[in-house]
Amino acid sequence: MTTLAEDTEELLTLGTATLYEASGLDCFLDPAFRPAWDGAQMVGRAVPVSAQIGDNLALHHGIEAAGPGDVLVVDAGGAPFGYWGEVMAVAAQARGLTGLVIDGGVRDTQQLASLGFPAFSTAISIRGTVKSWPGTVGRPITLRGRVVRRGDLVVADRDGIVVFPADEYGRVLAASRARAEKEAAYLDRLRSGETTLDVYDFRQLGVPDEAR
């Protein structure tokens, strides 16, 4: 059985849309989460963090608690503060973290891109933070209606983010591979001149009234 690290390239090639569709799970994060720089993508295991609005102390604790292959997934209340920047990204990379997802803001986006550190946020903001509340690390959090638990699988790319339980990983990967193969066959049929109505058997769903 392969490891998550070994499957990373394949997961990113499959992409979040295929993983979501094939999973049969309600596992996508709100589309408000967007990459902080073009081309950012990540695969890793979730380390949930809860931070107080305008306070990034919990994120510093999260970096310490996480390790190789982990992704910090942070509930910062969606507030547009600069919770994360170049310094924290360097610290995270030194510990082997593969990325950040935060309901809140990040800054230093050019530096994050130069470092190749994937960050997905709901805001870009230079507004400063305080360091007063240590928050929680490792406990389940809820991001805009989606519960995230420690060890959940996180895959993020320019299309979106999926988060699903680790015990679903093998099934989701197998289903995604099958879906990708089926779609490749559909593309060949479309290139040969068939229509999407025929390829997907949509004609049985009804015929529109003709324009007159």
From TrEMBL:
Q: What does this protein do?
A: Catalyzes the aldol cleavage of 4-hydroxy-4-methyl-2-oxoglutarate (HMG) into 2 molecules of pyruvate. Also contains a secondary oxaloacetate (OAA) decarboxylase activity due to the common pyruvate enolate transition state formed following C-C bond cleavage in the retro-aldol and decarboxylation reactions.
Gene3D superfamilies recorded = Ribonuclease E inhibitor RraA/RraA-like
Q: What is this protein called?
A: Putative 4-hydroxy-4-methyl-2-oxoglutarate aldolase
Its EC top class is: lyase
As for family, the record states:
Belongs to the class II aldolase/RraA-like family.
- Report which reactions are catalysed by this protein: 4-hydroxy-4-methyl-2-oxoglutarate = 2 pyruvate; oxaloacetate + H(+) = pyruvate + CO2
Q: What is its EC number?
A: 4.1.1.112, 4.1.3.17
Needs which cofactor? a divalent metal cation; Mg(2+)
What does the record give under GO molecular function?
A: 4-hydroxy-4-methyl-2-oxoglutarate aldolase activity; metal ion binding; oxaloacetate decarboxylase activity
The record describes its quaternary structure and partners as:
Homotrimer.
Q: Does the keyword ATP-binding apply?
A: no
Detail which positions bind Mg(2+).
Answer: 108
